[in-house]
């Protein structure tokens, strides 16, 4: 889907939530057209549908609401619009309801599901007629380590082989039955399949026997439980499509169309297992193997630890330069602390990086990933935030009473995007989406009249993954591979660019490395 319909749907959702009748009148007609485009793209209108028939439009809305467990009003209300704007799979929902009904009927009656032929892929078979399939990872985001990507893809295929008769092998450079590829924007799959940048459609796949899964390279992909879209979850979902599985209306199913974070429960739902077994049968030997999501939260732990490989000749001193980091802060000696996954690096005032070292070796008790971090010049302490909890350390010593639930203390946001000690006001600032919170470091209470709009920070982007104040007084914000330089006197962004290649004090001086950052 193009980005414009998504933005239009978000706008209309906000107008609904504010009760802005004048705004609704201006935006309603255009946004309804964008909703119609969304419904046509995802199979809720026939491919030959022309014009806007109110009864057909209402029925399509009702069908969408049924699939996503919304009240069946048939009206384009705020909740429906919000669901349309959420990140999801780009494959349409054309037969999801009827296919699910067939599965449930077969489960209750004991008969075999009769496979429906899809209109969109009517020239293709609905299943593979062999049990041994090969796959190939054609490319991947350069900021993710290759061996960890391959581990994640292998684990995603094994989810399905553990509950069916299928067997998968990686085909390295050879031709493969299933190919996984990352693309930007339009990649010759048709207008409806052009990627739309961050959010919207994350990926799409083709049914047997084309055997291709495509992923939006403009997304920020992650292989742990930190920031970004979890690549393992999305790959496992798209593999389901390459095997012939439709979307599932079961909310907890992996094959549900909308993106969900990796949880602690089993990755595959009963409906996922029933779907693949209806096509390929049960495992030939032994019972079904179900694995919990927490097992796949940290693929860096599946392979050699960064510390181990560093001492065996691998150079990871500037590993973060290839990638995005989770948080960044600076102490009183102007040493930078850069956090990624379960590791951190220290970059000296002269731009020399050391590390990586384990978070827990320096700050015992921290989780394996963090959402945000800040060093307070007021009390000389490190503050860490993850989910609804916070940690406060003096050096390596955890303060008494920590960690505790910060979200219950003065309405601090859960999963903050970034944290910053803002010297002009002598306060911590937490950023979350389009808002920011001024916080007292000692009590961790939100100050009165906050949160406020991020528009106060003229030009600073939402969802930054790090921020700090430099000795020259400027505040630097980071998101993915970009930086924004903010002047606290004029309250405006005065410069932006690529941090790895333009900010030498971050320790990424290697020219070849800088060119590789994407």
TrEMBL record:
Sequence positions that bind Ca(2+) 1:
219
Q: Kindly list the positions annotated as binding Ca(2+) 2.
A: 177
- What would be one Pfam family of this protein? PG_binding_1
Q: Where is the active site?
A: 238
Q: Where is the Peptidase metallopeptidase domain?
A: 124-282
Q: Which GO terms describe its cellular component?
A: extracellular matrix; extracellular space
Write out the residues that bind Zn(2+) 2.
89, 237, 241, 247, 255
Keyword set includes 4Fe-4S:
no
In this chain, Ca(2+) 5 is annotated as bound at 328, 373, 419
Q: What keywords would UniProt list here?
A: Calcium, Hydrolase, Metal-binding, Metalloprotease, Protease, Repeat, Signal, Zinc, Zymogen
Does the record's keyword annotation contain Thylakoid? no
Instruction: Please give the Gene Ontology molecular function terms for this protein.
Output: metalloendopeptidase activity; zinc ion binding
Q: Where is the signal peptide?
A: 1-21
Chain sites annotated for binding Zn(2+) 1: 187, 189, 204, 214
Query: For binding Ca(2+) 4, which residues are annotated in this chain's numbering?
Result: 326, 371
Q: Where does Ca(2+) 3 bind?
A: 196-197, 216, 219
Question: Biological process GO terms, please?
Answer: collagen catabolic process; extracellular matrix organization; proteolysis
Cofactor: binding comment: Binds 2 Zn(2+) ions per subunit. Can bind about 5 Ca(2+) ions per subunit.
> What are the names of the required cofactors?
Zn(2+); Ca(2+)
The ranges of the Hemopexin repeats are 321-366, 367-413, 461-508
Family the UniProt entry places it in = Belongs to the peptidase M10A family.
Protein name per Swiss-Prot or TrEMBL: Metalloproteinase-28
**What organism does the UniProt record list as the source?**
Podarcis lilfordi
